[in-house]
Each structure stands twice: as C-alpha cells, then as structure tokens.
Amino acid sequence: MRTTPAPAPIPLSPADPGRRQRAQAAMRAAAAAWRADPAVGAILAELERFGAGAPLEGCPRLEALVTDTASAPAFAAAWCRQQAAALGREPLGLPAFRHAFDGTISTLLLARSGRAQLILHAREPGAATFGAVRFTDGVRFDAVLAGAAEARIVRRTVGPAAAQQPFHAEALALRPGARLALDLNQEALQLLATSRRLVTLRLHRFAADPTPSREHRLPDGALLHQSAGSIADSRREMMLALLGRMEVAQAAPLMAAMALEHGDASLRWQALRECLALDSAAGFRALVAVARRAGDPLAAPAGALRTQLVEAHPELLALETDPCRA
Which of 10, 75, 227, 272 is the most exposed place for a label (fewest CB within 10 A)? Predict the structure, then answer.
C-alpha cells in the first residue's frame, strides 16, 4: 500500500509579510471579539460615562472592578484567554492594544474613553529608592491581581505642619486582592521592593482642567520640576521647544501672545522662555507685561526674572520706556 508523505511544515518566518498580515488580522479579530462580549461591553460603556465625568459610584460594573476581589481577576482572565487562544493559532501576532515595556514596567492599554483609561500594569521584581515624589491632577484606582511588593503612599501634609514636614508616608504590603484609591494631586504610590512580578488592573482618570504636574524633592519638598497637566498642553510645549531649537524667528510673536494668555501657567512660562531666547526684545516686553498683571500666578516669577535680566543687561530698560523699540 502506497502512502503519501506528509508535507513538510512551513517555517514561521517573520520575513513573510503575508503571514504577518494574517497574524495581525487574527489579533484584531480577537480584540474585537473581546470587546463584543456582553459583559465586557457593559464595562466599556460605563468607562465611556466615567471618562466623560460621571462619578465612579454611578458606574457599578466599573466600580466593582476596582473594589471587590472577584471582578478584576475574572475580567483580566477573560482577556488573557482570548489573547492566548489567538496567539496559539498565530504565534507571530502582537496584541492589538497599545503596549510598552522598558525592562522594569509593562503597560497594556485595554480601553480608553474621554479622560479615563483602563490599563494592565506590571512591575518586574527588584528594589527601588526614591529621592523625589511626583503629583499629577487625577484619580486612580488599583486592583492588584498577582505578585507581591512592599510599597508606600506618600501624601502631602495639610496645615501648619507642612512647613516642617511637607509629606508623610503610609507603608503598604501589596498582595492579590489589595485595592487602592488615590487622589493623585495629593497622593503618590511608590513601590519600594517587588519580590514577585506585581500585576495590577488600573483605572485612571485625568482632571477635566488639570493643574501642572509637579515633582518635589524628598524630604524637604523643594520643587524640582513642573510640566503641563494635559496632553494637549504638553504637545504645545514640545512644539514651542522645537520652534525655539529651529530658531524660527517668525514664531516669536506667537510665543509672546501665548505667554499673555490666561491658560496653563507651565505652558505660558515655557512660551516666555522660548520667546526670550528667540527674540529678546519681544520676549522682554511680554515678560514685563506679565509681571505687571495683578493676580496673575506668573507675575511674581516674571518680576523676579525681569530684575535678574535688567541687572545683567541694563539696556533692556529702554524697552520698558519705549515699548515700540526693537
């Protein structure tokens, strides 16, 4: 009896564009199937409401993910099963979700709507030390799914005691089932020692009109760095910096106008700095205008910078008496 030999297996070659396209199509289909699941769809609908500003207690399924001990593991396990099945069929596939890994921290964006994000977050084993603490304007809810870590929550001190002790810390042992609710404007979670990879389902919502993010030195509270609180303002800061590095002289009037707006203080200060570097006359006139504004949060630092510049360059005084002079 004659037998036909089995065909040789086709090697999985990353260089095969057709295979890669089929793999990604399969991963996109798996993501769509996960979103189409009624239980997942109900949570994503509540994420949309939460992202638009609804209170968490008005989104019961979403709230359960970050408060009880059963919902988050079941939700994450369903996602993992869907992805694992797709990868079993198409090993060259990549999850059709935004993801990143820097060697220590992994993030995978499950869903985003408005100001809210639902993220799978993982921290590799290891120890860390912190010389500073960073506060942003938003709220965050963490549901620990797996792993173990020793951590602390650093909080701003309120009242007269803040002058002597700007922050105080609460020690935490993070284990599966732990649930955290953080006001990120006043509280920051720091992982000090992770003994087993810590996996967390994280619900994050930015403030509607976020104040600048601030980084303070521990333990004295000195301000080390400040940046725009919103993504849109951060992009505008980057654009300002790029125009400055490219020495686009035509951008100076725009920078001066931005400095005089009533918007994000960090963005306005960046506009002032870039304008001064690009066109000292236009930048100095804008600086003086800001310094003379009653009630402007930048008036004091602008006045201090004006004094420093005049001491170093007395000729700038002519621009105050003759604002039309270039």
Answer: 10
Cβ-based neighbour number of residue 137 at 10 Å = 18
Amino acid at 217: R
136: its two tokens: 């942003």
Name residue 232's amino acid: A
Ramachandran sector of residue 212 (left: φ over 0; alpha: ψ -120 to 50; beta: rest): beta
Residue burial 213-222, b: 16+ Cβ < 10 Å; e: rest: bbbbebeebe
Q: pLDDT tens, 116-163?
A: 999 999 999 999 999 999 999 999 999 999 999 999 999 999 888 777
- The answer to whether the beta carbons of residues 155 and 200 sit under 8 Å apart is no
List of long-range contacts for 220-225, beta carbons under 8 Å, 24+ apart: 220/166, 221/162, 221/166, 221/167, 224/132
DSSP string of 59-77? -HHHHHHTTSSSHHHHHHH
The CATH number of whichever domain residue 113 belongs to comes to 2.60.120.10
Q: Residue 161 corresponds to which amino acid?
A: A
Strand, coil or helix: 153: strand
Phi and psi based region of residue 12 (left: phi greater than 0; alpha: psi -120 to 50; beta: remaining): beta
In a domain, residue 7? The reply is: no
Query: How far apart, in whole angstroms, are the C-alpha atoms of residue 260 and residue 281?
Result: 15
Cα–Cα–Cα angle for 220, 226, 228, rounded to 5 degrees = 150
Using a cut of 0.90, tell me whether the model's pTM lies above it. no
